[in-house]
Amino acid sequence: MLPLLACSVVALTFTIERCWALRRSRVIPKHLVAQVWHSVKSNTLEPTQLRELRAGSPLGRMLAAGLMNIHYGREIVLESIEDRGRHEAHGLERYLNTLGTIAAISPLLGLLGTVIGMIEVFSSISAAGVGNATALAGGISQALITTAAGLVVAIPTLMAYRYFRGKVEALVVDLEQESLKLVEVVHNRRVPVGDVGSQS
Q1: Do 59 and 127 belong together in one domain?
Q2: Are residues 75 and 156 in the same domain?
Q3: Longest Cα–Cα distance in the chain
Q4: What predicted TM-score, i.e. pTM, was given to this entire model?
Q5: Which residues contact 51 (CB under 8 A, 6 or more apart)?
Q6: Is residue 100 part of a domain?
């Protein structure tokens, strides 16, 4: 039960942390691409702004990586953004492997506790016989508690793991799309959505 209790505490802690870290407003701030584009367009992008971009969000770090190489051509910009994107994707997946591991081992820990409990029950039977059926049933029920506890820990942890895995995949796709918007507008391939109304 002690390992299961530790697993439940770790799983709860990481679930809360990932809920906070994977908020869309934190990963992909609204209108960030448009703000950066206006700074580039008006030639007011300063090194301090690049530092703020890198410190602000995963999208900001990807945009900053592209802007650092903006004078080397579209392919270099794309490569730098993709390279930074791989690092950001790895950061978004932080602790997910731990959650997956807890979801996998918790039922096994519960089963191990049940097996150990059953071994103790049958050891007592071999020593004292089966005269006390009430004590025997109580020992078996106590042994099965660990299996139930393992499932109680594993089921919500697995649900959290699957949810966060899907959310990370969706965020990574959106990060790529938002970054590509900047590449396209900087290299005059299209006008940002926010600028269409102002230019018409």
Answers
A1: no
A2: no
A3: 92
A4: 0.79
A5: none
A6: no
